[in-house]
Design a protein that fits this description.
The complex is a heterodimer of chains A (about 400) and B (about 325). Chain A is built from 15 helices and 17 strands. Chain A has about 400 residues and is α/β, with parallel strands linked by helices. The longest helix of chain A has 15 residues. Chain A starts with 9 loop residues before the first helix and ends with a helix. Chain B has 13 helices and seven strands. The chains are: A alpha/beta (about 400), B alpha/beta (about 325). Chains A and B meet through helix 6, helix 7 and helix 8 of A and helix 5 and helix 6 of B.
Chain lengths: ~400, ~325
């Protein structure tokens, strides 16, 4: 079943690099794809190889800091990992593809549909090579009509197939809202359990690098109310593959949220077959002082901030909630009971986001364990601007996370 | 067709009497329902809109099963979760009616795609009205079916009205058949009130769909004699004599009856017998369905997912606590 990662503390990771963990030193000088680098204001550059450069000095002096555990590594104390094969390295989009490919091999009912998923391989190359391997019928290129190919996926699912529907960008699935809400989520219920819809709807979302407002949507906040669906967000190659496989095997409709900026993260993952539990949160870094709940790309901003916080003497516990619907209140609750302070860091907008629901859920269930009101850092309620500097400031930055923790722990 | 007509009359009356909350009649479109159902096999999937219970009748759905769904009682396959007339039965391959218009069209294409992948000797039939063809799903669905060469039969019941909107306000194209052609789908326009013509068209369409792997569009021209539903009074937007003319002079059931009578296969006595027999069956079905208890409270929470998640279990607990504290505020015929 799911392996919960124990993120090793930043200081420890630097001093002792476990043999089977991600060796960041090797990749330091060979970036695959660097994102834009800006001088001036405090900039975070999350490099595709998982390294993070933190520019603390506005005048451009850069402090190279290696965050080996920004990408979750396997606990070197786990006996299973040391006795198993060392695994293989790949990028997050390759991990998604591997998961998809393995499930397609395992079950002939699994098929893919979406725009340009066939020979083009998908806009982020998640389905590359699958059409050649499985044929055009199993990896179907659809015309541009999201509501309709989602509906098509639902119809196929009700008759025995297990479709994986790709939204080229999650924002386009707003056009599929009718099918997702009124049919995907409902038909199992309204048919009295007669028809199941084991569909997976996946795609990249979130704020990228100057993709414009329409391509920077956070659909998880719009979909979270729909009864009958499950939502998960992947953040590492390990959990991307695991969640993809679990979602395909699930009998319920699952929406898998990927992030545009995380596709090139590299990690070493096991060779053997594994899945990640769809309803479980991931412990990234255990701690004592404060619980920081986050998911997807913000996990990396949080781990960035965690480095700073550790240097300042704080001990944050970082949990990647992964399961957006339903929340893993068991893991979250245990953490709250331990630390008594909660900070939520999300990319959704303040109003009606995942953070808003999570705040309510924690308040409802764990109020007695809180020493301070829950803080939630979210994007502002604005469409994402195109200008790079403006866009950056709509997304929560590590500096804000550090300040928030300091405030919370006063 | 007689069963459908009788069922419509009785259930409509039942709604007027307050025994069921809602009903939709198929008056005037009996030939489309029954003839198309007869022309396809029981292996073929049906994705209905909501005015096609005749297809279920043909496939063997009993008066009891219809009544159970309308009363939403414990015997309802939908477990009381949907409005009346939103029938669904996986054993009859009749996909649960969803109130949303035209959403079944792309789903039908998906199902046909699934049949094609499994290389089954079957096709999918989907129905919608003239109004449904304005929805985006219709256009994309037809397009997809053409591109994916899916074995689907699209049957448009062009009955002249979308609630109060006449077709002259719905589209300006030459009916629906031309739209199919525009998408590369072979299309045909049929007199929907001619049972034999409908049968012949659908029968041929099925052969083409299954053997040649192609979609077919059939525009069945008819008239919606009844109101849109029990929430509608169509005399408000159309002349009563127009309705009467279609009901009397153009009734598809009468037309078919005259034909079989002229061939000596039917008689006035047979008609009377059939009608009274069906009538009593249906009345009995209603009486019995009324008395059956409703689905238990737990069915409010099941089937949202495959298993009951913790939040729903909690919510069920809360509801049960409230019910036990205020039993007088909860209906007596819902078991706990």
């Amino acid at each position: 079943m799911a392996a919960i990662f124990q993120g090793v503390g930043a200081a420890a990771a630097l001093s002792s690099t476990p043999s089977n963990s991600f060796n960041s030193k090797k990749l330091l000088f060979s970036p695959r794809r660097s994102f834009s680098v800006r001088k001036g204001a405090s900039v975070v550059v999350v490099r595709s190889d998982g390294n993070v450069n933190l520019d603390l000095n506005p005048r451009g002096r850069r402090a190279q800091q290696l965050i080996a555990n920004a990408v979750a590594t396997k606990a070197d104390s786990s006996a299973a990992s040391s006795s198993s094969k060392p695994g293989h390295e790949l990028l997050l989009f390759e991990a998604l593809r591997e998961g998809l490919e393995e499930e397609m091999e395992r079950d002939p009912c699994v098929c893919v549909m979406g725009e340009d998923v066939g020979h083009y391989g998908g806009s982020y190359k998640v389905t590359k090579g699958l059409a050649t391997k499985f044929g055009d019928l199993r990896v179907l290129d659809t015309p541009i009509a999201e509501n309709s190919f989602t509906g098509m996926g639902i119809g196929a699912a009700m008759t025995g197939l297990r479709p994986v529907v790709e939204g080229m960008n999650m924002g386009f699935l707003l056009l599929a809202f009718n099918q997702i809400s009124n049919n995907c989520g409902m038909l199992h219920y309204t048919s009295g359990g007669q028809f199941t819809i084991p569909i997976v709807i996946r795609g990249p979302g979130g704020v990228g690098r100057q993709l414009g407002a329409e391509h920077s949507q956070r659909l998880e906040s719009y979909f979270q109310s729909i009864p009958g669906i499950q939502m998960v967000a992947c953040s590492t190659p390990y959990n991307a593959k695991g969640l993809m496989k679990a979602a395909i095997r699930s009998e319920n409709p699952v929406i898998l949220f990927e992030h545009v900026l995380l596709y090139n993260l590299k990690e070493r993952i096991p060779d053997e077959d594994y899945i990640c539990n769809l309803e479980e949160a991931e412990m990234v870094r255990p701690g004592e002082h404060v619980t920081i709940l986050t998911y997807s790309r913000m996990r990396y901003h949080v781990m960035q901030a965690a480095k700073t916080l550790v240097n300042k003497g704080y001990d944050p516990e970082v949990i990647d909630i992964r399961s957006l619907k339903p929340f893993d209140l068991y893991t979250i609750g245990n953490s709250v009971k331990k630390t008594h302070r909660v900070l939520i860091v999300e990319e959704c907008m303040r109003t009606g986001g995942i953070g808003a629901s999570l705040t309510a859920a924690i308040n409802e269930n764990f109020l007695d364990y809180l020493d301070a009101p829950i803080m939630c850092l979210s994007s502002q309620d604005v469409p994402t601007p195109y200008a790079g500097t403006l866009e950056e400031w709509t997304v929560v930055q590590p500096a804000q996370i550090v300040t928030a923790v300091e405030q919370l722990c006063q | 067709m007689v069963t459908l007509q009788t069922m419509d009359t009785i259930f409509y009356e039942a709604q007027r009497q307050g025994r069921i909350s809602f009903y939709v009649t198929t008056i005037g479109e009996e030939a489309i329902n029954i003839a198309s159902a007869a022309a396809v096999t029981s292996d073929d999937f049906v994705f209905p809109q909501y005015r096609e219970p005749g297809v279920l009748i043909w496939r063997g759905f009993t008066p009891q099963e219809f009544a159970s769904q309308c009363f939403g009682n414990r015997a309802d396959y939908g477990k009381g979760r949907q409005m009346p007339i939103h029938y669904g039965s996986n054993k009859h391959k009749y996909f649960t009616v969803s109130s949303t218009i035209a959403t079944q069209i792309p789903q039908a294409v998906g199902a046909a795609y699934s049949l094609k992948m499994d290389k089954k000797d079957a096709c999918v039939v989907t129905y919608f009205g003239d109004g449904g063809t304005s929805e985006g799903d219709f256009h994309a669905g037809l397009n997809f079916a053409a591109v994916t060469e899916a074995p689907v039969i699209f049957i448009c019941r062009n009955n002249g009205w979308a609630i109060s909107t006449p077709t002259s306000d719905q589209f300006r194209s030459d009916g629906i058949a031309v739209r199919g052609q525009a998408y590369g789908v072979r299309s045909i326009r049929v007199d929907g009130n001619d049972a034999l013509a409908m049968y012949s068209a659908v029968h041929t369409a099925r052969k083409m769909a299954v053997n040649e792997h192609r979609p077919i569009l059939i525009e069945a021209v008819t008239y919606r004699v009844g109101h849109h539903s029990t929430s509608d009074d169509s005399t408000k937007y159309r002349p009563a004599d127009e309705i009467e003319w279609w009901r009397m002079a153009r009734d598809p059931v009468t037309r078919f009856r005259k034909w079989i009578e002229s061939n000596g296969w039917w008689s006035g006595e047979a008609e009377t017998q059939l009608r009274s027999s069906i009538r009593s069956q249906l009345l009995l079905a209603i009486q019995m369905a009324e008395k059956v208890e409703k689905p238990p409270v737990k069915e409010l929470f099941t089937d949202v997912y495959d298993d009951l998640p913790s939040n729903l279990r909690e919510q069920e607990k809360l509801l049960r606590e409230t019910i036990s504290r205020h039993p007088q505020d909860y209906p007596a015929d819902v078991p706990h």
